Amino acid sequence: MKRESELVGLCIEAACESRESVEKWRMQRRSLDRLPSPVADALLRRLIARRLLYPSLLEVFKHSAEEVDVRDNGSVDEEWMAYLGAFRHLRYLNLADCHRITTSALWPITGMTTLQELDLSRCFKVNDAGISHLLSVPNLEKLRISETGVTAKGVKLLASLQNLSLLDLGGLPVDDVSLTSLQVLKRLQYIDLWGSKISNKGAAVLNMFPKLTHLNLAWTSVTKLPTLSSLEFLDMSNCTIDSILEDDKSPLVKLIFSGATFLNEAGAFSYANTNLVSFLDVAHTSLHKFFFLSKMKVIEHLNLSSCMMGDDSVEMVACIGGNLKSLNLSGTRVSSAGLGILAGHVPNLEILSLSKTPVDDTGISFISMMPSLKDVDLSNTNIKGFLHQGKVDVDSSLSLMALQNLKLERLNLEHTQVRDEALYPLSSLLELRYLSLKSASLADVSLYYLSSIPKLTNLSVCDAVLTNYGIDIFKAPETLKLLDLRGCWLLTEDSILSFCRHHPQVEVLHELGTVYPFNQNGPNHSSPSRSTSRTVQMAKKKDPVPVLPYLADQRLKYSRDELLALQFASFPLASSTVDTWDVVKDCFYLVVSAGSQKQRVLSVSGIPSQPQFTSISTRLMIPVMCKILCFYYQPDRGQAANGRKGSNDTIIII
Amino acid sequence: MKKEDTVKLISAEGFEFVVDKEAAMVSQTIHNMLTSPGSFAERQHGEVTFPEISTTILEKICQYFYWHLQFASGKETEFPIEPELTLELMMAANYLHT
Questions:
Q1: Which of A13, A232, A509, A606 could form a disulfide with A652 if both were Cys (CB 3.0 to 4.6 A apart)?
Q2: Domain residues for B22?
Q3: % of chain A with per-residue pLDDT over 70
Q4: What PANTHER family is this protein classified in (chain A) (predicted)?
Q5: Is the pLDDT assigned to residue A629 strictly greater than 50?
Q6: What's the domain count of chain B?
Q7: What pLDDT, on a 0 to 100 scale, did the predictor assign at position A419?
Q8: Hey, is A334 helix, strand or coil?
Q9: Best residue in A2, A4, A11 for a mutation probing chain B (most B CBs within 10 Å)
Q10: How far apart are CA A107 and CA A87, in angstroms?
Q11: How many pairs of residues across A and B have Cβ atoms under 8 Å apart?
Q12: For residue B13, what is the domain's CATH number?
């Protein structure tokens, strides 16, 4: 699509400013009819995006527009279709997810000779009768009717649309008989049959489509494929695969077998022509021999997530690593030693996912030897940020330092044991744009290090112990667009709002309300719930998601000053207006909720049900609570201190 | 202002707008007319006639040329467009590749 020139763009913006501005130009008939179609289409797109389009306004475009994309619009109904039916030059119509489109709503587009492309995906009220309306659209080339109410009977009717080159029948109960009746469609290049009732018998007629390049058979019972001499794309995810493509003719480029079961693993790929494969997805399969990789010399994207890949088979990947651009090893047994084998063999690797692998800090130095890396996912790994484990002295070098050799743009360190001081090397990652951190051992110091990353646009620091003071002094990089602070339970609404005022370009996510840039007239308040007994119940159920709102709500009772006092727990509290027992109780709930988030069983023993603490000064209790929290989040030290017994965590407060 | 540095843009009604060549060059179409090899009348006389563009619109276009130059040099201001003009201006801008 050609981008419209700048002034045209400004005009479109001005024309779609408001309902009033639309009214000012919609009567200019002569101009509207003469609008060049790319401009008319762009204007229409903008009107749709701004939700300013209504049926009778469509009428003014009937001589100019060629493309109409109203997907996912709940108001599109028969009236809209009546106007669209009058469009003289309509070539492309997208009605995907327009739930009010019924079979009869399709009546106006019957006989449209200009229409070439129609998308009715997920218009579930369209049934077989709707298909019969389409049969008089003679030039239809691309038709998408996935997840509609069309049955096998309706699919059979499509055989008369001789010009079809693309047919998306995903999620329809297409059976072998109806597929066989489609074999007259010799121009078909693209067939999507995911979730259909096709069996091997139906799949056998697929070779009647001489131009077939794209085939999706995911979630079907097909186990064998005939010779498909032009097939480039094949998706058989979640199928049981006996043998695929036993000839070597298909010029396969992209293969997706995620979640598939291979009956004959050794022979699965042995005959197929995989010399041209550039994309292979075998995630969540039981494959454990990877010799088939050796033929894929030009592969660029490889997904091995949750495979039986270990350090012993990494060499197979290293052999074909020359062109590799993205590699997903998440959920595999590949460790730092495996990365050592890989390093030096993947000069073009840009995206690497090592999430949920046993990779530790020694692996980072190997990662730094992959020169083109831009996106690294190290979440849920054993990374601590220090090279010498156990020793916490100043001399132990920071492992993340090695990343400074790379031009990283994205880095994910969620659910690792990286702590504040170990983040320091990140401040000199000059190209970093996206950074995700999620750990309860992070505090304000982290923000200080992160504020000097020059190009950072999206920063998420979830579940951290950030304080209002930390947010106040946080100098957000000028490029920052999104700051995700969800789960940072110490923050108050006031401080988040004040941050937003000082950084109007930043969208902030937090349980106390999401603040979008340029729109500060009121964040969504989560309704404060004082039902503390419910909090405990939720926590006991180990239900991590619903706990968070309560977690945040607990603090709504305290004023800003009181929370400021909380944050400097070691200083004496200025005033003791806070009900001591309440503070203690709430802190305890925080511990319980945070614990359940980690899916650990917490028993609530050791907490007296009666408020016996009123005599103890707040000054004494708060540091105790904070200590418990801190210990809890540092497993190595906490283990001894907070009295873990077996698999159950018991926090005894006194 | 030397004559070589300016260009005369003539509207459908015959109104003449004399603008800096640099400004007029913001339009890819005018740029091509004035720089393409060969002896186009436009290039020789420094005059371009737009029989399709009305005076109001051409005036707005000329304003845009200057606004664009200012904007390019870092001055961030809004370029106001009256909703009544949007359609015609859109077409003219599309034609002029502005």
A1: A606
A2: 3-96
A3: 76
A4: PROTEIN ZER-1 HOMOLOG, PTHR12904
A5: no
A6: 1
A7: 87
A8: coil
A9: A11
A10: 14
A11: 68
A12: 3.30.710.10
